[in-house]
Here is the input.
Amino acid sequence: MVLDDFSVTVPSYFRCPISLDLMKSPVSLCTGVTYDRSSIQRWLDGGNNTCPATMQVLQNRDLIPNHTLQRLIKIWSDSALTRSSDSPPPPRDSLTCTQAAELTRHLETDLQNVQKHSPFRSSVITRNLGRLISFAAESEENGRFVAASGGRILPLLVSLIGRVKELSFLEKIVLMCNVLLKNRTKIDSEGLKSRIEIGNCDLKASIMIGLKQGRLDLRIALVKFLELIETHYYSSSSISDDEEIYSELLRLISTSDWNPDAIDASLSFLARLALVRRNRAKIVGAGGVKVLAAALAEAEMSAQTTEKVLKLLEMASGCKEGRSEICASEVCVRAIVKKLLKVSSAATEHAVTVLWSLCCLFGDKRAAAAVVDGNGMAKVLLLLQSNCSPAVRQMCGDLLRVFRCSGSKNSCVSCYDSKTSHIMPF
Here is the structure.
């Protein structure tokens, strides 16, 4: 039962809670939790007398074979091996490297003719772009090959963005630009900058039309394009100065049914824009706190995406407008508290920083009350006693002092010495 050679996602309930590998001989403890025999045996042989998952003291050390789970793992493994061994045939329209290089040369000629205002058929360029995009998506190696052979067409494509009226044509152009930018090698950077500067107004107008009227894939592609341009080649100050861009980025998050790709693309670009302090107030003014709070409370996000949301809220809490909006939103504060110790150490640190900024640095009583009402004191106490970073420990201590001074006399914090940090939860 060897699956390491295949790209197969193992269901979480087939993994051992200790090794996180596929269980070969699942056995259950008296607590009801199932482990791989070799992993739990090593745990017990190490002198431990608790269940690793629940930390309950074991009444006995019996290992009961879980035959039902073992049969399910066997059925799933056989099926996964069969699927992996049946390699799918190449797509009917798949290109070879030679064909891709030839198609790129034809595309460059067509785009040069467009620059000369010669008649052209957008359907032909759209089809050739689509074939190259599909070829690049087949593997990272293909993506690098397309970027290496097509680096000279990037400035031509960028200048064409401002002249395109068909949204389907615009989508193909932007997707191809993203392939070239992401796998950047031989790209005419100076030529690209000049194209952006020359057609800046038209480029910006087309981008905004695409963000407002395009389908979801086009909107995601445009946001990724803007971030790639901003990051590697050109500081799009004219874009970041436009109030509309922030509204559209936030609308992409809130109107996409919490699409993971849409959320991630928008958050990444917003985080980049927020590196400039004056842009943080613009994000807040466009309704950023409300959208980010809703994402925390309602969306099912990966740990990395949740970290980005909390990082943005941390940056927003550094400006007056952001603090005011966060403190006025009980939903936002409660959502931040809820993520403490739930996602990752990075997410927890961002969340603690936001709460510390609101409650300690600026002494907002509304935020402190919302933290208390959301059972935040217990989480801060637990976090203080855990193996957290010195910075987080210091902020937790400050938070507890605030709660002890402002909380009721019956609060457990009123008699807790925040200098005590030796008690471990496990």
Observations:
- The two ends are 36 Å apart (CA to CA).
- The first strand starts at residue 26 and ends at 28.
- Residues 144 and 183 are 5 Å apart (CA to CA).
- Confidence is low (pLDDT under 50) at residues 1-7, 408-426.
